[in-house]
UniProtKB/TrEMBL annotation:
Coiled coil: none
Superkingdom per UniProt: Bacteria
Name used for this protein in its record: CoA ester lyase
Needed co-factor(s): Mg(2+)
Amino acid sequence: MPEGGLKMRSWLFAPGDSERKMEKAAGSPADIAIFDLEDAVAIGEKPLARTMVRAFLEAQSGGHERLWVRINPLDGPYALTDLAAVMPGKPGGIMLPKARGRGDVELLDHYLSAFEAVAGIEQGATKVIALVTETAEAMYTTGDYAGAPRLIAMTWGAEDLADSLGASENRDADGSYGFTYQMARSFCLIGAATAGVAAIETIQGDFRDLEGLRARAEQVRRDGYRGMLAIHPAQVEVINAAFTPGVDELAAAQEIVDLFAANPGAGTIGYKGAMLDRPHLARARALLGLSGG
């Protein structure tokens, strides 16, 4: 099951300088709403956005575990000011952009521990998702996050990575991500598995293409991803459905688990004309775990 029972299928961004969009995100069926202080907010508007995000958080009577904040990168001038402003509002978690490696998560943990102490928040309550492929150097550290404090998920980004590499485009002629960016997606997935946290797919910029979104979300879920970032409320229900196992999937998984339970000494078991071994059992259990089964 996810951390503390928290669902992590859909992560919906809302700019921190728009109360209307924050309200829409918080009221949506998104598992997690992320109030953005980084890319969605111009430099001159960041002070106002911090005030607005804190006021919004403080106005909520409950549900803070699903209300997160994306701060600015730790190696820039704004991250500590972001945290000082929003932590009294008791966000459920922090999205760390442009993470350079495990050291950034550890540094963020120190900051959060201090701000939690001041704000009267239980130590360790504020969780973290790290964006782990947004800079060239970060691509070499995606496998280093095992045991990183507070970390419950890892995600990746293609746009900032393209900027870091000096690329003019990150997609091939058919619209799919180029090799380097497919590699970034794979590194994030493998790194998250190594760290024992959820892998979260990056955004789909065209929020009108819901069929394309559905196909992509279903594919990355088959690959091992457990959720996806969203930039528009219309994407949320599609993402939620794609990352929720269907009735037939769950029934088949339960059948496999039951077959192995009935034959505890067997290494392989015949099932519908195929031979299944222990990795099939592990995948069936993981699938059931997605729905709490």
